[in-house]
Amino acid sequence: MRIGIDARFFGGEQSKGLGRYTQKLVEYLSLYDQTNSYTIFVQSEAYQHWSIKNKNFTPVLAPYHWYTIAEQIHMPRLIKKAQVDLMHFPHFNVPLFYNDPFIVTIHDLIILHFPTERATTLGPWLYKIKHWAGKKVLRHAALKARKIITVSEFSKKDIANFFHLPLTSIMVTYEAAEKTTASPKNETQLLKQYHLIKPYLLYVGNAYPHKNLEKLLAVAIVLQKKYRENPPWQIVLVGKMDYFYERLRNKVIENHLENYFVFPGFVEDTQLSFLYHQAAAYIFPSLYEGFGLPPLEAMSYGTPVLAAHTSCLPEVLGKAAIYFEPNDVSGIIKVVSVLLSDERLRKNQRELGFAQIQKYSWETMAKQTFLLYEKHKKKLSTNSHQEKFNSATD
């Protein structure tokens, strides 16, 4: 069977989140599956630096950005030319005119639950058009897929309820935390470079509105009234300095909270490892997640995790996280203060975190996906034989 995978998120700056899921899927499938042939649709950077050794995995250049008209028009033609038997879209952006057999991974329904103009740089009318198109594409993906893959039981129920689908049409394959990388030796220099004052809380990710980072500003405002310019702890927000982070940083400046926040921007892996190891805790105030990979990755570094008691997070993080209500400012301050004052608690959370991450594996995710491909391979084969039989008896 020839399987196609839309891996345009593979590699480059998009190698977080969706890109990581897609990359790990392709990498582990290439190690596990020696029988099927794969056509992997990638953008130019991944195409030029293709490193998969399995000869059954063939990269095909697909220079079309996601969420564009070019994607809608050209991807179906490119896939048809590759003559795949089954297509896997690791994101909901399935072209509306693609109706051949496909599987789709829908990680979450953020686009439906958080339709806000604050989550875009577009003007109001352009945003409304884009949001309408996004909902239409998502509905097409959910209703036309041979099977939906998602990344948590929470998301499975959310998708089933929203689209009125049977739970049997959706399969859960959990994501996994990355292995840790070595921390750099010049730690004192890095502390100065990033203007860090310990203890600090760490957050790694984007600054979209549903991440609820503005609630951390509210926390800092309360602390500032008590501690003035000498914060009891800092908050380090790591992420590419885009429109959303700039907006957040401007609010920090407006409220004179510069001593309470550090914005390192994009951080390379070795230095990011350092930030994890040195952090007193990782804080994750998100209002909604499909899986919640960042706090799991924090656990892999031995960093205690504080997380909002929302969506999938209790399911994924289990007892290894200390929870707070995402809109309770005083509650957030309380859990941080308790954790920072109790070394035994921090040690216990580190141990629970190491145990929790062992429950998840990219290899297991890829094997489960492979078995799904094999199941549909049999269905496609049966349908093909039935068509030949019907043709012969006409």
Automatic annotation (TrEMBL):
Listed GO molecular functions? glycosyltransferase activity
Name all Glycosyltransferase subfamily 4-like N-terminal domain ranges: 50-172
Glycosyl transferase family domain location: 198-351
Q: Which GO terms describe its biological process?
A: lipopolysaccharide biosynthetic process
Q: Which Gene3D superfamilies match?
A: Glycogen Phosphorylase B
Extract the InterPro entries matched here: Glyco_trans_1, Glyco_trans_4-like_N
Q: Which terms are listed as keywords in the entry?
A: Transferase
Instruction: List, alphabetically, the CDD domains matched.
Output: GT4_MtfB-like (cd03809)
Pfam families assigned: Glyco_transf_4, Glycos_transf_1
Q: What PANTHER family does the record tag this protein with? A: GLYCOSYLTRANSFERASE WBBK-RELATED (PTHR46401:SF2)
Under what name is this protein listed? Glycosyl transferase family 1
